[in-house]
Design brief:
Thrombin, subunit H, S-adenosyl-L-methionine, cytoplasm, S-adenosylmethionine:tRNA ribosyltransferase-isomerase activity
Length: 360
């Protein structure tokens, strides 16, 4: 499909720079393409009104790490140059794939010392070698530290990698370390938050429990590739970046039981949806799964397991806007986004949410 089919104009003031307070007071646009009046305005706290006992919410329990690193590049003993690297996928105890800037000036074999901006880990800096250089500024970094020692050093010198549409308007601050994290985050490894989950609070979890709604967790470590624009003119020419994830055998079995009993699988966020669909057979049965997924969902995709999706409002010409258009229909989602813009919904990571029914 042509990528420009997924374009729209968003006024700059619609980009949220902070989350709603409390989180579950954010607006919720309910979109059901299967009924005539398919758009309705609510709050996230009203979520239980659209679910029923026996349904299962699926959350991504990945935890954002301070994956934005600033450092000095060294080559052949020459003077250093300031560089930055955003880690996006761990491939070993001491290896990460990262997006580096300025990418064109970085070469294989370069040494980079991170942590020279006044903040440092317990060794004074965190050093790495550029082991491999790929396309579009992607590099493989081989760190001098490994395992838990590397994790501790990254936590000491790194910064929360705010999405570029927020970082362009204000610097990251201490508040973001809490705001840009779900309350159920557990498995460290993401460089971007599963933002639909940012709306959940202990009070909302209690309301879901009283309503008989099940909660289940999967893990997909969101990579920085989620912020990359689709530069191709046709979706067939776009390559998704891989992201690592896991669906446990126990979770798969429970979700299959929910479906068998007539319940619905409701994914909180496109990350959990992509993982569940990666783990699902053509029959709709969900299997235990672990690995890297690069699933790219566009209109025409046949959903195998997921019935509903809660998600934020996404960027134009993005793979996520393509995904929601596949789920509820392109015309429906264009109308939904027009409505959201006209009625003052807040967009992107810290913005409001939508609850989508799958188009029959």
């Amino acid at each position: 499909m042509r990528v420009d089919l997924f374009d729209f104009d968003l006024p700059d003031e619609r980009i949220a720079l902070r989350p709603a307070e409390p989180r579950d007071s954010a607006r919720l646009l309910v979109v059901d393409p299967n009924v005539e009046s398919h758009l309705s305005d609510y709050r996230v706290g009203d979520l239980t009104s659209f679910l029923r006992a026996g349904d299962a919410l699926v959350f991504n329990d990945t935890k954002v790490i301070p994956a934005q690193l600033e450092g000095i590049r060294h080559r052949d003993g020459a003077g250093g140059q300031q560089v930055s690297a955003t880690l996006h996928m761990r491939i070993g105890p001491n290896r990460w794939k990262a997006f580096a800037k300025p990418g064109k000036r970085i070469k294989q074999g370069d040494r980079i010392s991170f942590g020279h901006s006044g903040e440092s880990c317990f060794l004074g800096s965190l050093d790495a070698t550029v082991e491999e250089k790929g396309e579009a500024g992607e590099v493989t970094l081989l760190f001098d530290l490994s395992g838990p020692a590397l994790d501790e050093a990254i936590a000491a010198v790194g910064h929360i990698p705010l999405p570029p549409y927020i970082a362009a308007k204000r610097p990251e601050d201490e508040r973001d370390r809490a705001d840009y994290q779900t309350i159920y985050a557990r498995e460290e490894g993401a460089v971007a938050a599963p933002t639909a989950g940012l709306h959940f609070t202990p009070n909302l979890f209690e309301a879901l429990d009283r309503a008989g709604i099940e909660r289940h967790f999967v893990t997909l470590h969101v990579g920085a590739g989620t912020f990359l624009p689709v530069k191709a003119d046709d979706t067939a020419d776009h390559r998704m970046h891989l992201e690592s994830g896991t669906v446990s055998a126990a979770t798969a079995a429970r979700l299959n039981a929910v479906k068998a009993d007539g319940g619905r699988i409701v994914c909180v966020g496109t990350t959990s949806l992509r993982l569940i669909e990666s783990a699902a057979e053509e029959s709709g049965e969900i299997r235990a799964w672990s690995g890297a997924t690069g699933i790219f969902i566009t209109p025409g995709y046949r959903f195998k397991a997921v019935d509903m999706l809660m998600t934020n409002f996404h960027l134009p010409r993005s793979t996520l806007f393509m995904l929601v258009s596949a789920f509820s229909g392109l015309d429906t989602m264009r109308a939904a986004y027009d409505h959201a813009i006209q009625t003052g919904y807040r967009f992107y990571s810290y913005g409001d949410a939508s609850l989508l029914f799958r188009k029959d």
